[in-house]
Each structure stands twice: as C-alpha cells, then as structure tokens.
Amino acid sequence: MPIYEKLMGNPFVDVGVCAICEWLGHNIQPEQITAEDLKQIVKDFVPLAANWDKWTSIFTRNHRLTNGRQSDRVPKFKKRLLGYIDQTVELGQVGDCMGCGRREVGSIPLLDKTGVPLTGGKNSNFFPVFSEGAGYCPACSFAIQFLPLALVATGSSGGRFLMLHSKSWELMQIWTARCITGVNQRYSQQQSGGCFKPDYENSRNGLFYMVREMISELEEMQLYDEITDKDVSMEVYSFTNNNQFPDVEIFYIPSPVFRFLYDAEQNPYTDTWYEIVRSGYKRGKSEKDYKKSRNLVYEYLLEGRSIRGFFLSRRTQKQRGNWELLSLYLQKVRNMKPARIEKIKQVGDLMAESIRKSRKRGKRQLRDFADANTYAECRNILLRIFEDRIYQHKEPEPLFSFEDCVEYLFISSDNAQSWSDELDDGELDEEQKEQLIHSISDNVTFWRETRDLLLFRIYEKLHSWLTEQEDD
Ligand SMILES: [Zn+2]
Predict the structure, then answer these.
(1) Cα(126) to centroid of ligand 1, in Å?
(2) Could you tell me the residue range of the domain that residue 346 belongs to?
C-alpha cells in the first residue's frame, strides 16, 4: 500500500499532499510518493519556510518556525517533520486519523491550531470530550505542513488565504502548480518565502482571478474536454488563522458555473464578458481598484443568484454582450430549456419590429416595459404592443400565441393571478397565506426574468435606432 492516495477526503490533508506532489514535479501522483521523497522536500522547503511571509496567519505565532530562539527554529521544525516520516506507515484499511481514516494516530501529539489551521487552541472546550486537539496520523500531520505552497494570499495585508478543494484532482494540480510558480517567483525576486500573492485585496476577486488562470492553463494543455466531463465543482476556503481573529468563509463554484466561465473566457466572448464583469464593480476604474472593490457579478455567481441584470444597461438602453453569450449563461447556469430561450428571442424580435414601426409611441412602450414593477403592468404594455401589431401594422400573426405564453413566456403567472384572487377572498388562515405569498413572490421573479430577457433582445435589435431617435 502507498503512503498517500488522491483525495482522501480531508481538505487540509488533500491540499498538503497535492502541494508535495507539485513541488516534487514530474507529474508525480500521490500513490508514488516514497519516504525518500518526503525527506527531500523537508530539505528543500524548510529553509524556504524559515522566512515565510505571514506564516503566523497560517499556523499562528506559536508555531515552531516563528516561536522560540531564532537559531533553534529551523532545526526544531525539521526534527518534527523527520519524526513524522520515521513514524509513517503505509495506508491500511481503517484507523482513527481525521485525515485519512486509514491509519492510527498512535502516540504522536494531537494537532492544535499551530499544526492545522482553524483547529482551536489550548482551550480544550473546542474539542470533543475535552481533548487537547485533533488527531492526525504522522503521514497526514506531515502533509498538512506543506499547505502554504498551495495557498493564494489575499486580503489587505496578504494574511487571508484561499485554499482549493475539489473532486477534480487535475484542477487541484493546476491551482497548486500556479501557486508554486508564484512562490518560486517571489523567492527569486526577494530572497524570502511567501505564498503566491497576486495582490487581490478582495478574496472573491482573487478567487475569480485563479479561475481565469486555471482556465487558460486548461486551454494551453488542451485538457478541457477531458476534465470537464467530470465533476469540476470547487470548494474554496478563504481563511485566516492568526491568533486574534481566526475566521473562515467557504465559496462554492458548481460545475455548470465553471463550464460557463470557461466558455465566456474564450473568443468571441472574452471582451463582452469582461464588459459585463466590469459593470459589477461597486467602484473604481483601474485594474488596481478592481483588485479591491466588491464585484456583484462574482458575488451573485457564488451565491447562485441570477446575473442577467448585468447583461442590461437600462439607462443607456443597451445590452452588454450578445444573445449567444446570454443564452449560454441561461442554458448552462440557469438550466433554461433551449426551446424557451428561442421563443423569447422570437418574441423579442417581433416586439422590436413593432416598437420601431410605432415610433414615438413605441419608444414610450419600451420605457414603460422596462419600468414595469408588477406583472399586471408588464401584461398591459404587452397588450398594447399586441394590439398595435394587429390594428396599426396589420400583421396577420399575433405577437405570441396563448400556448407560447403559458408554455414559454410566463409559465406560472396565471397561477399567481388566481392565487392572489384567493388571497383576497379571506378564506385562508395565516399559515396558508404565508405559503401563498411565498409562491406568488416566486412567480413575480419569474415574469421579471422573462421581461429582462425580452428587453435584452429588444435593446440588441434597436439600440442604434433608439440612439438616432434621440436627436429627433
Ligand atoms: Zn492519516
């Protein structure tokens, strides 16, 4: 049996093992790591770690490398690591280790927050049955010490870290390899160690920077198809483990979002996608500002909220991106059926035509449509355009059929109307009312979605006409 395997389940251990593999290089897999390899990495890494920037934010200031007499620090840390190697055994079937679950913790000391980030301190109240720390076997305890090689430093002082855990080992390798390149660059430039630090004060923005880096690497290695057939969801821990304010936030990027970002980053979408991303910044104009400022597009993607609003600029009556990019997002991330997307596009085209023919009245209709706050308002404007099309422009076909309306456009809105009638009846008790209001508000967001998508298509078709009209 080997010492390590891929993805044993504990994020700190898996990331540490990945860091060891990528540091050793030559595409070494966890199953191939030998005790000799581990001795080699101790020799290479410990002198580097001795001057590591923000080490105390990863392992607290009580760590062996940052505590006690200066001249003792490196030898003591080395001794501990070599001790772990001496006591390491191959993976077995079962054991009480929190990392692998396949080896015993044995007689080695339990790890507190100086050994594993976010594991509490001397206060035994943090741990089950008042134990002194968390139980990891020697091999897992060893692996965790190499975490810093796979972390991205963010935050205003660089003391907040991003750590990736994914079911895709390949993605973890790509992330870690990027971090190690950054570590080596820092080391060669400054003669001191530190985590890869692309200078993102805002951790979420730093995370999306890493996603871009990973995508371009996948592209370069032509690995995309092979990898993205599998689960490529990512859990990213954003943490600091300094003594005063230890804290963790977990970001989740599901596979569909990753796949959408991959497509959006490629031509012909790259430029328009950045235009959309830029519209999400709360403030700032330069790349430097963007590293600090909150970005709502990124935040909504992480929260699973729709970003369709960022595809539109209502003020300038202009869309951002094109229908293809929007429909890619709707299909991949929002799971919208292609038939519905296509129908909305067709209706949007017909509406644009009618608005153009109605000239001034059409422009007013468009503004009212964009400003509609209730489904009733939205429906009234659609009705006006509907009537113009038949009575003014003498078109033989209606804007859409009843079937189109209930199947593709406003799928549940009729129900919402009947529910609101039911609410007015006064026959429901409080709990039933609450249930109904909940369902109705779901439907309200639903008509807004259809309206926004129609608006996008109309702006796409009419923007230059609308701009010319302003001079009238
Ligand atoms: Zn273990």
Answers:
(1) 21
(2) 337-469
